[in-house]
Amino acid sequence: xxxxxxxxxxxxxxxxxxxxxxxxxxxxxxxxxxxxxxxxxxxxxxxxxxxxxxxxxxxxxxxxxxxxxxxxxxxxxxxxxxxxxxxxxxxxxxxxxxxxxxxxxxxxxxxxxxxxxxxxxxxxxxxxxxxxxxxxxxxxxxxxxxxxxxxxxxxxxxxxxxxxxxxxxxxxxxxxxxxxxxxxxxxxxxxxxxxxxxxxxxxxxxxxxxxxxxxxxxxxxxxxxxxxxxxxxxxxxxxxxxxxxxxxxxxxxxxx
Length: 256
Ligand code: COA
Fold this sequence. Notes:
Layout lengths: L5 E6 L2 E6 L10 H16 L5 E5 L23 H17 L7 E5 L2 E3 L1 H4 L6 E5 L3 E3 L13 H9 L1 H8 L5 E2 H7 L4 E3 L4 H13 L3 H12 L3 H18 L2 H11 L4
Parallel strand pairs: 2-3, 3-4, 4-6, 5-7, 6-9
Antiparallel strand pairs: 1-2, 7-8
Helix pairs in contact: 1-2, 2-9, 4-5, 4-9
């Protein structure tokens, strides 16, 4: 990887991870998924680290998967290349339910696709009032991922989950707060400090008691693991579909 697109910093018993590709709205490329997984793995291994903290940058959380990873330069879908790219996505999706340490997120600006679905795996989520959450999966010919087809109905209720994941409705921060995904909504300038303050409070608590409590709250994760695999099977099939390929090309060619 020539550019540093993920910044990770183990400090004060926190693993602070920042998506740092603001010129592409922090869209996640395969290399970024790998770097993200490496950073999360490092935080899990480091015995002094108690909590992961996830931020975007440049007033954006993330625009989701890098759509250009799914098409070749000629604009034709390349199954082999997309398959490679998808390995990194899968590494990330499989890691999420396995994390033993709590995850705190601070969201400013857009959170699209996996930028929203990753938040269902976080234990505390703080957002700025200008944060917007959307998952335009069906518009892209795709299906929900990252276990969101299971976690979103549980967290938001079926009606709101369907509206978010299938209708593709964008949710404001206030609506997501009321829907139960967020802990608090604040000003953009202080959202990271609010997330860090909560992460510090967690880091100060007895680590084993936090880990065991978290595990009890999350319950049996077998069903979540199975759902992630089921979603991956359908998602990969959808990637090859005309619906998806047409939508990717339309996005990438929208200025020409
Ligand atoms: N994949 C690849 N590139 C992306 C991207 C994505 N998911 N999201 C944004 N980008 C790129 C744009 O192509 C653009 O690149 P360019 O400057 O080289 O043309 C750059 O990031 C800035 O994006 P732009 O669209 O100009 O910003 P905007 O503020 O007008 O719109 C979004 C921001 C996020 C609403 C819009 O970029 C978008 O809809 N992105 C796709 C989101 C998406 O569908 N994600 C997948 C979900 S499964």
